[in-house]
Design a protein that fits this description.
- This protein has 225 residues and is mostly helical.
- It contains ten helices and three strands.
- Strands 1-3-2 form a three-stranded antiparallel beta sheet.
- Helix 4 crosses helix 6 (129-145) and helix 5 (105-122) runs antiparallel to helix 8 (173-192).
Length: 225
């Protein structure tokens, strides 16, 4: 939807559009947000803009400081680490069950076909929506195999913070290829039915805060809480 041309923009539309822009770093962490500018941008009343901002604040995507203004929230690495901890616990348990299955050949075929598409997508550069969908599908296949396809939906609400961190983290082709290599390592472990190797591969893949957080905070500290 092109919100700037729509004649019936709702507060929900503004909220969803701003969520996407914050997630994709079109609004950078710490960037100021003007209610007046948003009213002009979306051609709506202040009341509608404030409704959207209230929801963004509830989702921890913006901070409002009296007499100072409204700002895109900084990246809170502790909060992101907590969410990733939950996700890793879910997927580690899933892998533990997967490697105990009698036949994992069909799963591995689907995972490898997905990785092939990831490689095609990575050539286009950047962590695109298409690559994100493939990444999500890859992990979804593992949960589907143990009949737990909807488990990650339980942490979907705060997961926008992970996607924002991921967009921040993956800003080079090298990191994109690392992601794909990490997926391949997970598949190799599943094929070998090696639970220890599988857990190690998944931990390496998901524990990005420990691996990259401190270096980013040193180089670009103004974006982090």
């Amino acid at each position: 939807m092109d919100l700037h041309r729509s004649m019936q923009i709702t507060s929900e539309d503004i909220y969803e559009d701003m969520c996407k822009k914050i997630e994709k770093l079109e609004y950078m962490p710490g960037q100021g947000i003007s209610e007046n500018e948003l009213c002009k941008q979306y051609n709506v009343s202040r009341h509608m803009v404030r409704g959207a901002l209230t929801r963004l604040k509830q989702r921890r995507l913006i901070d409002v400081y009296p007499q100072k203004g409204t700002f895109v929230s900084l990246i809170d690495m502790d909060y992101i680490s907590d969410i990733l901890y939950l996700r890793e616990a879910i997927e580690q348990e899933a892998l533990q069950r997967v490697v105990q299955l009698e036949d994992v050949s069909d799963l591995c075929e689907r995972l490898e076909a997905n990785i092939a598409l990831q490689k095609e997508c990575s050539c286009e550069g950047g962590y695109s929506d298409d690559f994100y969908q493939l990444d999500t599908e890859f992990h979804g296949f593992i949960l589907q195999e143990i009949k737990r396809a909807n488990v990650n939906n339980l942490i979907e609400e705060p997961y926008i913070h992970i996607r924002r961190w991921r967009n921040f983290e993956i800003r080079s082709a090298d990191r994109m290829y690392q992601l794909i290599n990490e997926h391949e390592s997970i598949v190799d472990a599943i094929k070998a039915k090696d639970a220890v190797q599988a857990r190690a591969a998944m931990h390496t893949h998901l524990d990005t805060v420990k691996r990259y957080g401190e270096s980013f905070k040193e180089i670009e500290k103004y974006y982090f809480f």
